[in-house]
Amino acid sequence: MGQTKDETRKNTGDMSQEPQIVFQNVVKYFGNTTAVEKMNLTVKKGEFIAIMGSSGCGKTTTLRMLAGMETPSEGEIRLNGQRINELKPSERNTPMVWQSLALFPFLNVIQNVEFGLKMRGIGTEERRRRSLEWLSRMAIEEFAERSIDQLSGGQRQRVALARALVTEPPVLLLDEPLSALDANLVVRMQGVLSRLQKELGITFVYVTHSQSEAFAMADRVVIMSKGVVEQVGSPQEVYRKPASRFVANFVGSNNILNGDVSAIDTSSVIIETEIGAVRANLPTDHEYSMGVHLGLVISADAMDLSMTEEQSKDNQFRCRLVSESFVGAMVTMLVETDSGIELKIQLFQKELDQIGFSENTSSSGTFLWVSWSKSSVYILPQ
Amino acid sequence: MKTGAQKGLDGYALTWRLPVIFWQLFFFVGPLLFTIAMTFFLVKNYRMTEAFEMKNWVKMMGKGYFWDSYFLTVGLASLSTVTATCLAFPAAYTLAFKVSDNARRWAVFFLIIPFFTSYLVRTFSWYVILAESGVINNMLSWIGFGPYTMLNTKFGTMVGYMTLTLPLVVILQTLSLANVDRRLIEAAQNLGANGIWTIVKVIIPSAKVGLIIGAVFCFILSFGDFVAPYYLGGSKPPTLPIMIIDTTKSGQQWPRAAVVAVVMMVTLMVVAFASIKFAYRKK
Predict the structure, then answer these.
(1) What is the pLDDT averaged over residues B64-79?
(2) Is B29 among the domain residues?
(3) What angle do CA B193, B198, B199 make, to 5 degrees?
(4) B206 touching A, CB under 8 A?
(5) How close is the nearest chain B Cα to the Cα of A95, in Å?
(6) Average pLDDT over residues A147-159
(7) B199: left (phi over 0), alpha (psi -120 to 50) or beta
(8) Is A169 on the interface with B (CB under 8 A)?
(9) Where does a domain end: A228, A249, A270?
(10) Where residue A359 falls among pLDDT bands split at 50, 70, 90?
(11) How far is CA B162 from the centre of its chain?
């Protein structure tokens, strides 16, 4: 949470004018449940921001408040410096690309795209010209007169984008727009979205539960849990320096260990954890003393593996292989330390070959040695 | 069984379909064919005799009063359809979008209740309300208006038609509006559509099929209704259903009444087919 506030302060400090979107102490209740709790968030013009979290964390409610489908119970939302709490959805220019796409089935492709322009009272000719422009930009102009049910998933996605963007809005809201597409198409649409956002220079607010989507496209990521913003930061920051245990758990494949400080020297700190003593770099601004309880995060891809015990390792533990799974060239292994704690390790297949690891050795119950440098141990903020 | 299945008609399915088929043949197709055949019969000495002559058709089609009655009936049924559709829409819209699911269920239940009682009874109860010395004129007289003649007018006919059709139209419209995808409504508002535009551009097109079916039912019921134009509308000038009654009573002219019936049937079929076709039209 500490980092959340710092981040906000830094951004407002950098800006000479009012940032594009400001959430100020925004709270949303639904009856007795709190969907969003004291949310503070500042989004710069032209930023691609992703709001992430598991279902029910308040990310969609946040987006719906921006679009005006929900009204904040407390606090203020500003768009371009103007308070928008009381504006009706139709009075804001915050088009959304919906998870269901919500294309009008009784209108054809170009009529769908023209809809927003028509509602703004723009004449037939200009409407058509601008819509066709967007259709050709999305490379679907040949489908202009088709009905929606004649299009593929990817084509519908493009229609939804064109329909939302044709009014040249300052902000585009996206509510898990890629969740219905198959994996190949998701990657291609990510490219389309990223490129589009850079070309247009407008703000994208993207809600997703998919870490890979958020990290692939967003400048900054907002991690939410139970209505609370856990962290705001660049994908790297969130990945390497999670602000809380929740973020560490939610993001990436991290190993989280807990323990008490047992020794401190000039450059490192030793923490007695459930798997044994772990050595970590001593942060310069540390305030640790003996016996303090700390949470440690070691990301799965920071771990090394060897078949024999090696000298001069900061941290090394003997383990037994529990399971392994392959995704492309990446291998994710679950190993168990002598103390019975499971650790996650991610390695490239190539690396495994180099250390002489094979299926046979793994199945025979041979011991493996897992090691990591003290610099790759991240200490969670207290 | 095996050969039957290969032809796409297995015995099991056929067994269940046969009663419906027979019902339709005996009670719909049969009488319809007989009615059509009857239009070519002749009446001699107040007795119907089998024949195959065009006399009845020539006679009826050549009569001015038949066509007057035809267009009057089409006009009244159309007016009834437009009136019922317009009166029902705000009610159905409220029930579909503005009240809780529970309230909607109760409302639909209360809309079904009128069908428990005889339509004729409900029609006669309007006498008490609409008569020169009835409830409405009595109340109007307190503030110095009236009395107005409402019975035996086209207004009376309309009241009767509404009694017959309005609950049904409200139910049909409510059900179709309640099924409109809320996400499309939100999407329209998100794209800048205000309340009216949302109704015109999204809700009505989405619920089009249900709204049209409601209107078709209203037209069919009003077009064929004898009670409202006879008891509340005063039967003059006669609508087609009244003409059928009159024709059979005067001189046992069943064949001529059959001509009227067949014309009505054809009209309803054309209207129903055209409407359904329009409802399911692409775009």
Answers:
(1) 95
(2) no
(3) 155
(4) yes
(5) 6
(6) 92
(7) alpha
(8) no
(9) A249
(10) low
(11) 10
What is the count of structural domains for chain A?
Answer: 2
Chain B residue numbers with beta carbons less than 8 Å from the beta carbon of A119 are 188, 191-194, 197
Tens-place pLDDT, residues B15-69: 888 899 999 999 989 999 999 999 999 888 878 888 888 989 998 899 899 999 9
Interface test with B, best of A94, A115, A122 (most B CBs within 10 A): A115
Domain boundary among A185, A220, A249: A249
Give the rounded percent of residues in chain A with a pLDDT score beyond 70: 94
A204-237 in b/e form (b: 16+ CB < 10 A) is bbbbbbebebbbbbbebbbbbbbbbbbbbbebeb
Cβ–Cβ of B186/A167 closer than 8 Å? no
Please report the DSSP string for A140-160 in residue order: -GGGTTSBGGGS-HHHHHHHH
pLDDT tens digits, one per residue of B122-153: 999 998 999 888 899 999 999 988 788 989 99
Asked, for residue B13, whether it belongs to a domain, the answer is no
Q: Check if B184 contacts A (Cβ < 8 Å).
A: yes
CB atoms within 10 A of CB A190: 16
